[in-house]
Amino acid sequence: MKLFKQKHVTGPANWLFDRYSGGARRPVFFDIDRTYPPLRAVQQAYPAIRAELLAVLPTRHEIPRYHELDEAQRKISAEEDQNRSWRVFMLYVMGLRPEKNRARCPRTCAVLDSVPNLFQAFFSILDAGKSIPPHHAPYRGYLRFHLGLKVPAVDPPTIRVKDQHYTWKEGEAVLFDDSWQHEVTNRSKEPRAVLVVDVMRPMPALPHAVNSLIMKRFLESYRRKVGERLDQVQAPPIPL
Questions:
Q1: With contact defined as beta carbons under 8 Å apart, do 126 and 86 qualify?
Q2: If we measure between CA atoms, which residue out of 167, 204, 154, 160 comes closest to residue 183?
Q3: I need a labelling partner for 91 at 20 to 30 A (CA). Which of 34, 41, 56, 124 fits?
């Protein structure tokens, strides 16, 4: 998120959060049941979520590429080959609820709305052969959850987070620290789709309050920017 490049915000906040998260020794992957149990409800809704994702996929070429909504993602999203894109179908953006998208995924959104301290959720769709170069989130106030929805059976894509690797599986969920460097290697010949859910990092009252204030104050511009760009994008028609 480009707005979090403001080091006068992220630096002190990350320093505070590191005192509770482990700093340079903070985990890479997390046990969902111990760290964020409400996310299990999302995984349990996998059949309904996958069905709604599959209904969206036929029109995926009309779904915006990530950098078309967030210019800060251009280096990791943009490709000259339009058939090798990273597309995002937004369902929740820092308090913004895109009505047209959510109307197409009511069961997915119902379970997402039950997750406390959720601040972003979207279908992340990689075209065949689209990899994502190394990058990391500059802000350590949240954790990222992936639920595998459509994963190629042959040569499935993998993600490296710090020095650990993970291969998505349909119906399987994983929770990790997005602030560690990570990259996706994708040599598959089919699309890969996961549900991404970002939740505030569980911390004691003081750092949680600071995190909440930052989320409220500094995400307003991001929410407004993405909202404006979503409004400019024609929502994909529902196939008859």
A1: yes
A2: 160
A3: 34
Whether 187 and 211 have beta carbons less than 8 Å apart is answered as: no
- Would the CA dihedral through 22, 5, 78, 150 be positive or negative? positive
Q: Which of 222, 232, 237 is nearest to 92 (CA)?
A: 222
Query: What distance separates the 2 farthest-apart alpha carbons in the chain?
Result: 53
* Packing angle, helices 205-218 and 220-232, rounded to 10: 40
Size of the chain, expressed as the number of residues it contains: 240
SS3 204: coil
pTM above 0.70, yes or no: yes
Round to whole Å and give the CA distance between 159 and 166.
5
Lookup result for tokens 């609820």 = 97
pLDDT in tens, 15-67: 999 999 999 999 999 999 999 999 999 999 999 999 999 999 999 889 999 88
* Domains delineated in the chain: 29-232 (2.60.120.330)
- The C-alpha atoms of residue 213 and residue 200 are separated, in whole angstroms, by 12
Query: Distance between CA atoms of 119 and 226, rounded to whole angstroms?
Result: 14
40 CB-near residues (< 8 Å, 6+ apart): 32, 33, 173
Structure tokens at 177: 């620290």
